[in-house]
Amino acid sequence: MHLEANGIVGGHEATTDQLLLVAQGSGVVTGAESQAVRVEPGHAVFWRQGEMHETRAHEGGLVAIVIEGERLDPAEVMRSLD
């Protein structure tokens, strides 16, 4: 996913479990509690199916990998490579 400077994916309900992995840039995400959390490269955000959420890029834009699926287990997807 690529968001241009100050781009936004407005508030919506996750249709399935979602994992957002920030690769480049920075921004702010919100979840069910609408608390804004800053994200940058290396950060991961997980939303459960049905959870309202939003993603906003800062002035440098934001690039992320989004993984979606039923019964997605973030611990399984994000295993350490050690």
The run of helices and strands is: EEEEEEH
Low-confidence stretches: none
Shape: globular
Distance between the termini: 27 Å
Overall tally of domains? 1
CATH superfamily: Jelly Rolls
Helix content: under 10%
What is the structural class?
A: mainly beta
- Architecture (CATH level 2) name: Sandwich
Alpha carbon gyration radius = 12 Å
Counted beta strands: 6
- Mean pLDDT reading: 92
Number of helices: 1
* CATH fold-level name: Jelly Rolls
Q: Report the biggest beta sheet as strand number plus sense, adding barrel if it closes.
A: 6 strands, antiparallel
Could you name the CATH class? Mainly Beta
Strand fraction equals over 45%
Summarize the structure in short.
This protein has 1 helix and 6 strands. The protein has one helix at residues 74-77, and strands at 2-3, 8-13, 17-30, 37-39, 44-47, 52-69. Strand 3 (17-30) and strand 4 form a beta hairpin.
Features:
single chain, mainly beta, Jelly Rolls, 6-stranded antiparallel sheet, 1 helix, 57% strand
Topology, pairings included?
Blueprint: E1 2-3, E2 8-13, E3 17-30, E4 37-39, E5 44-47, E6 52-69, H1 74-77
Antiparallel strand pairs: 1-6, 2-6, 3-4, 3-5, 3-6
Description of the molecule:
With 82 residues, the chain is mainly β. The chain has one domain (2-72): Jelly Rolls. It contains one helix and six strands. The protein has one helix at residues 74-77; strands spanning 2-3, 8-13, 17-30, 37-39, 44-47, 52-69. Strand 3 and strand 4 (37-39) form a beta hairpin. It is globular and about 35 Å long. The termini are far apart. The mean pLDDT is 92.
